[in-house]
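Predict structure. Input: NACHT, LRR and PYD domains-containing protein 14, 684 residues.
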Amino acid sequence: MNNPEEVIPMIAKGDSTGKRDTFISQLKAKYQDLYDAVQPIPYIRDRLYCVDRVFVEGGIEYLVAKDRIGGQGTWEKLSSYHNILDDDRVKSTRRIIEGEPGYGKSTLTLQLSYDWCNKIPLSYLKDIDVLILLRLRQLGGVTSVYRAIKQFLLPKDSKLTESDIADIISECSSVLVILDGYDEYPDQDAKVDSDVISIITRIMFQQFEVILTTRSSYLPKKYPPMTKRLKLTGFDDNARDQYIRKAVVGNNVAAAEKIKQRLKENPVLGDLCQVPLVFVMFAHMSHESEQFQKFNSVTSFFRYMISCFHSHMKNKMEDENVEKYDLFETEHTELDKLAFEGLSRKDQQIVWSKHYMCERLGQDFYNQYVRIGILVEEEVLDISDDPNAVISEHIQYKTEVRLYHKLFCEWYAAHHLSEYASRNDITFERWKSEYRNNVNCQTDHYLKYLDPSDLQYVYRFSCGLNRIAADKIIRYLKTREDATKFAILCILEKSGKVEDVLEDVEELCSKTVKINNGDTLLLQRSTIQLLEIATTNKVISISRVCLYNCYSTVDLRGGIHLQLKSNLSIPVLTTLNKLWIDTENEGREITSEEFTGILQYSSKCLALKELWLRWCLLPPFIQAESVSVLRSRNVKVIWYGPVNDYQLNLQSCLWEYAPEWGTGVMTDEDYQSEVEKFKQKYED
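Output follows.
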């Protein structure tokens, strides 16, 4: 890899060009320090990579607004991260990139900084004068963007002043500002105006391009209407395969297949391994450990992963330290309570000051968990509000601490929840009462803020850690309308045996399984995971799956999936009998290419007997090769059109009237009537 800047030039006095060159050189030096220190496995500190060596593109989508008033926008795919800046469909000076924790938002910003520093020919960034990358979690109390640049991006001995920085930026013709992690920005609701908020709302840097990254549930309260929204959707099969080959095994085909086979052997981890951060650890650990095992629950997998953190460090320690080390590995009650307190607040807290953490956990415990990589330190500015403070004391640095990932916070919080729920005085009736009546729990936090939709793994881990707690948690979840299917997944965590939930799954699949657009993300995700359990075991027949106004598209990359509007995807269900896709609420004009994809998906569902599509506009002509497999199995394909109902003749590949409508082939006039009725309903 080329060093983007071997020598950082000195400033020539009075030379604005010299100052600009110095500024750019110092920025590039800082970014190189960041993008050369990517750490796929946090507990192996001596294994650092350049971001370009390990970066693999997951799915990226952009939001398309509906033309008609009141219509919902739809998410459509971008082919590459390069398109974020050069695609006309997302052209704007303001963009928001959304993604859940671990989906690679920060890694993407490092890749963009790499592209800029090294002037990658394919990148739009090669022509950008200046790139500013700021991590918002560091900027609490910092109201000036120029101060933030000075304090966090330039070396401490830089002669450039905040005024110099402002002058340099104002003279640039093209600037890209990346604000990473709005969901972790301490001053989201601060009453004092800050440049960060002014930049987001386009009061400041109006002519410059700005990218803001955040979790989908933490969008800014105000942003300009012309802001383009994009979303990272995680790793599909193709992205996982690319990462394995690029960053783990190279050209070793056998080793790559071994990792992929281990993932197939662990279907319960499918949803978890859509999170790039988790899959990366899974891939490296499964490649490097011959003892890697089959996991029947996410609890058993996470327990194994945590043990890898500890065992790696233990092997490096002297014998006399091992006893104390073992104690800290098993006794982490205060960290459990701290994590639970943070997640069970109305406004979740996942960052603490180092001083507070050391007081709560003890210095030895704290040091060990930092060395392991479970706790992560970060330097931030500490700006004094004391008007009597001398200048040297007004701006200082402090260290803040967070767990490596939110999943780790959920893991330790689950230990506290399971211990609390297993107590004899905590009955199911009291649990339910505290939730419904907002009564203060023993933990001094309301159970109502532990939303399973956001904190599903707190509940699942708790059930896997303690069977007594699991019984109460599962009973509680079954009282929630949106969590009955999720409760089945918690039963799996409790026992660790798929066999213990097969009866529940079989009962669910014997009836019509509905997925609605209005369902919570938790309900949709739980339903899909239960369908995966059914089809993986091959003995459970899935009667019918109905997708009501939630179907988005067919994803043919890295294995075929049905993509939902929620961005969840349904894999091929080999034991599915009937599939129903209904788009009545919005109407969908499905192209020939997309319909071919639906037919290909249906062909992979080996037990499928019927495919039904309702209130969508299908193509009038079907290619013969797209129905060859369905023809061999005599699968019935029905289209409920806006006017008439039709059945696809798999021999002639023509639409014919459904039997209840008579006989005959759909004519051009018939199809034109369908088009006109469709437009009348959905375009007026």
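The mean pLDDT is 86.
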